[in-house]
Every structure is written in structure tokens, then in C-alpha cells.
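Figure caption, in words: inputs first, then the predicted bound structure.
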Amino acid sequence: MGNHSIDIAPIRALKMKLLRLQEYSIFAVENVRALFAAWRYRRDTLEQMYLIGAQAFPIVFISGMFSGVIMAIEAGNRLETFGAKLLVGRTTALAVVRELGPVITGLLMAARTGAKNASELGSMQVSEQIDALRAFGTNPIEKLAVPRLVAALVMFLPLTLVADLIGLLGGMTVSDIWLHVDRGFFWHSAVYDLKMKDIIVGCAKPVVFSFFISTISCFYGLATTGGTVGVGRAAVNAVVVASVVVLFNDYIFTKVIWAIL
Amino acid sequence: MIRVEHVTVEGEGRKILDDVSFQVKSGETKVVLGPSGAGKSSLLKIILGLWKPTAGAVFIDGMEITHLSERALNPIRRRTAMVFQGNALFDSLTVAENVGYFLQEHSTMSAAEIYERVEDCLQFVNLPDTMNLLPEEISGGMKKRVAIARAIAFHPEIILYDEPTTGLDPINAKTITELIIKLKQERHATSIIVTHILRDAFAVGDSLAVMDNGNIVFDGSPEELLACELPFIQNFLSEIREEARLILHEQR
Ligand SMILES: Nc1ncnc2c1ncn2[C@@H]1O[C@H](COP(=O)(O)OP(=O)(O)OP(=O)(O)O)[C@@H](O)[C@H]1O
Ligand SMILES: [Mg+2]
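Bound structure (magnesium ion present):
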């Protein structure tokens, strides 16, 4: 008896996980197929753009600035020991545009948007508002998930670009103050060394991240059971899974897509 | 017509509904009584297709809805309204937006027409001047009435009320009961009313069903219920038997 349960418990857990993954995949496909509903529910879409996009600018601004500043200081210090401090612009630009900007913004959005979506839809689920929507003939995916998805798809890229830009400006400023690398030189070397490939990858990441962050958090929100505790659990799961998926996707980008391009 | 045939619903390894069969004829008002946890709300959710039964079938006007997809269910849902036990008002929308939700979503009515209809409905449930409030800004009893206004706003042919008068003061409870009777007489809506209030049950029900433990233990006319010999029913009615007789007498 004891032996059996030890053998079977992990298998059952794995089965549950796979079932969840399958349900999520179906949900994500349904989101894509219903994408045009964003126009029908354009008021909701615009509202979501404001809530998950416009309102996130301050935090993205701050995190973008610090990532650029820290990168420039660290890289500058190392490079200076080799007498190569003039490379600080290139190094910072590559790191910020390709990795730091997208990933830090992605993780912030996984937390901010993920928690928001999962807890909003979760509360609606446990208070039967989702059932009420369905009873009125409204598809919750079209009315709730798609506007959030489209808002994220549209807004994450500009947010990331702002993070990139502010990061570069921050890096440029500290390089000037502490490393005495001329601002003009920093900027030129940064822009000169950025290739099209860097920019494409840097711009593709936020779009892909936004898809996963939005669909994962809406999926957990709509699947909420178990009252207030359930809403908390949905929010935690959404943020954890979305963050891991952001990091994993980043790895795929860096390792695989980079090689293909 | 609503027909439920041998419906069983299992949840967490337990039978919530156990081989339930009953029907509600067109234009009929069926009252469902029963102790807490008997499965009354679950039955309504099955009829709306919000939950799928593990066995059995549900027919609306002769069409089986049990295995329909959400999309295929829409035409039926657009003729059906439900007052949820917990109201389920959309908490990010104002009272007026809640009441007008269906019309906004599915009708071709203009904003002005919808506004007028919403005003009428709120008047109907005795709630003028709440239009621009959010659900969190109104009392529990007011929420219940908004939920009823939202359900009747689009003139549904089938109305499912889950405890529409629970938690209301006697005056508003009476208003709602009269409203339900009025809707039944004027619009001939087919309705199912879940209630704990036996007095209302006798006042509005053309027929009554009593549920216990996932089963329908009685289904018949009010007179038959009063005459029923089952110990469970006897017990259930003990408090109000005489009063019920009086109400029935007044009505006839
Ligand atoms: N989502 C759910 N999952 C699993 N079991 C549930 C669920 N909802 C209700 N139940 C169970 O089903 C049974 C019937 O619940 P239901 O809400 O239908 O009762 P009810 O007759 O409406 O009671 P009340 O008069 O208190 O509203 C209860 O025992 C309840 O524990
Ligand atoms: Mg109930």
C-alpha cells in the first residue's frame, strides 16, 4: 500500500501538470482565434492599454534607468583595468538592448500584469461574475482575455523601448561623470555597434513575452477555484509561471533564434 | 419548455445531483424548495449549461443542450435570464451598465432606448436614482433588486431566480414577489424560482418541487404538497401548513 502510493503520487502529479499544459494550450489557441474580438470590445481594450501599458511607464522608466546605469558602471570599471573604457558604450548598448531592457521589463510585467490579470479574473470567477457573463451569452475569452492580450501585445514593445532608451541615457550619463567618456562618443559607439539583428531580437522579445504573460495570467485567473485563498493562489501561480516562461523564452531567443537569424 | 432527464452531477467525488428528472411547461412557474445544500443552485446552473452533467440530458424547447458548446448555447442563453444567488453583479460597471448589459451587448437598440429601458426596470424594482452608483456603493438588498432588474431588462422568455427574496426586508420582498407574479401574468415567461420562503412559494408557484440531498423528493401542485404524507415533507411544512392553506384559499 505504502509502496504503491510512493510510486504513483509523482506520476499522478505529472499527469495533472500535463493536463494543465494541454488546457493552457487550448486556451492560448482560443485567444488567438478570438483576437478580432479586441475590436468589438475596443472600450475594454483601450482601458487595458491604459492600465497595463500607460500606468506602467514610471516603474519601467526607473528600472530601465538603473539597469543601464549599473551596466555602464560595472562594464566601465572592468574595461578601465584593461585600458578599454572607451568600449563602455558598445558593451552597455548590447547588454541593454538585447538582454537587460527586454528581460527586466518582461519580469516586471510578468509581476505587474500577471498579478493584475489573475486576481481580477479570479475574483470575477469566485464571485460568479464569469458565470453571469456566460449566462448573458458573452464569451469570457473574448470579453476579458483578448482585450488584455491585445493591450499587452501593443504596449510591451513601447515600454521596452523606453526602458532601452532610458537605460542608454543613464549609462551615458554615468560614463560621462565617472569614467569621463564623452557623451557624444558613448552615444555614437553605442548606436554604431548595434546591428539590425540586435534590434530585431530586442523588439521581438517583448512581443513574445507579452503573449505568454497575458495568456498565462488570464488562464490562471479564469481557472480559479476556492474563494479568496484561490484568488491568491491564482495570482502567485500566474506570476511565478509567467516569470519562468519569460526567462525560458529569453534563453531560447539568445541560444536558438540568435543562431538562426 | 424545460425538461431535465435523469441528470446526475458529481463534484469532488460526491453526487451533487442524483438522477434528477423534472419539467417546466411553457409559461409555467415552478418553485423549487429544499434545505440548504440540496442542490437547487446546481440544478439552475445545469439548466443554463454553465455546468455539464456527468449523466443525463437537459432539453430546452425540445432541443438537447447538454453537449452544446458555449457558442452553440448562445441562442438559448439570449432568451434566458438568471438571478444568481450571490447576485453576481459586474463590480466594475455601474448599476445602469449592469442592467443594460445584455441590451448593450446583443441588441440593436440605441443608447437612448437602452437608457429608457434601464430607467424603467430600475423603477420597477423600486430603485430610482441608483443608476450611476457602483455595486459596492449599494446595500445587499439593493444589489438583489439590481440583479433582478438586470435579468428582466431584455424581456427573457425563461427566467431562473435563485432566492430572489432572501435578505430583503418584508416590503421589498413583497414587491419582488408581486413583480414575479406580474411578469408571469404579463409576459408568460417560463420561470423557475428557488426559494426558502414557503409563503412566496405558495403565492407564485403553479407547481412546486422539493429537493433534498440531490434528489427531487416531491413534484406537484401546491394542493398536492399540502396533502403529501412523506415525513420529510410533513416536517418541512410543519411551520407554515395553516398559513399556506390560507394563501391558497385567498388565491382561488
Ligand atoms: N463548485 C462546486 N464544486 C463542488 N461542489 C459544489 C460546488 N458548488 C456546490 N457544491 C456542492 O453541491 C451541493 C449543492 O449545492 P447547491 O449550491 O446547489 O445547494 P443549494 O440547494 O443551492 O443550497 P442553498 O440553499 O444553501 O443555496 C452542496 O453540497 C455543495 O457543497
Ligand atoms: Mg443555492
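The radius of gyration of chain A is 22 Å.
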